[in-house]
Amino acid sequence: MKEREMERKLEDMDRRLEDIEEKITELFNDYENSKKEQTLKLADLVQELIGALIIALPFSLTEEIWELANRLSLGRVLFIFLITVVMVYLFLRFSKLQNWAMQNVLGFIPIRLITSLGVSLMVSFFSILLFGIYPDFLNSPEQVVKATLLVTTFAVIGSLGVDMAK
Predict the structure, then answer these.
(1) pLDDT, tens digit (0-9, with 9 covering 90-100), for 60-95
(2) 31 & 89 share domain
(3) What is the mean pLDDT of residues 42-52?
(4) How far, in Å, CA of 26 to CA of 123, rounded?
(5) Cβ–Cβ under 8 Å, residues 95 and 112
(6) Model pLDDT for residues 110-159, shown as the tens digit of each residue
(7) What pLDDT score was predicted for residue 34?
(8) What CA–CA distance (Å, rounded) separates 19 from 58?
(9) Which is more confident, 73 or 47?
(10) Which residues, 6 or more positions from 2, have their beta carbon under 8 angstroms from its beta carbon?
(11) Which of 137, 3, 151 is nearest to 65 (CA)?
């Protein structure tokens, strides 16, 4: 009788050990999968769009942006925009906040920089048009370009921020 009970307990312990080994294997596989680099997907583009919208819509409605677009030269606005692009490039290139695969165009331009800038530029431009900022407050196409670049300076940060927050 005691032998049977001992065998049953041993079998029960073997089953428990097998269950524990399976759970450990599952946890290890989940950990390994979490370390894989993530490539750019449609969901990332949607997140970039949402982030750009969150920032671009309110910024395009501020009178300060319109005033800057009126008063600053195109060269100065391009300089501000270029500084932003360089900072975003450095951030994408050297930050380790996300496990993004380094997908480059021409060997050195991160594709997320291109997509984020493109999405942000489009959202900024269309928000200025959608709200009637042009032609009501901005009088020339040059002022629209300057306002679009100024709004994009902020929208690209929102775009990448939401994309990273997943």
Answers:
(1) 888 888 888 889 999 999 999 999 999 988 887 777
(2) no
(3) 80
(4) 42
(5) no
(6) 778 888 898 999 999 999 988 888 887 888 889 999 999 999 999 988 88
(7) 58
(8) 54
(9) 73
(10) none
(11) 151
Strands annotated E in 34-165: 104-105, 109-110
Q: Are residues 108 and 57 part of one domain?
A: yes
> Three-class SS of residue 80?
helix
User: Interior CA angle at 48 toward 46 and 54, to 5°?
Assistant: 105
What tokens does 49 get?
Answer: 């769009």
> Max CA-CA distance within the chain?
98
- Which residues, including other chains, have CB under 8 Å from residue 124's CB and lie 6 or more apart? 52, 56, 59, 60, 147, 148, 149, 151, 152, 155
Query: Are 98 and 119 within one domain?
Result: yes
Structural domain including 29 reads: 1-36
Q: Say what the pTM is.
A: 0.68
Domain check: are 108 and 26 in the same one? Answer: no
C-alpha torsion sign, points 90, 49, 161, 112: negative
Total of domains in the chain: 2
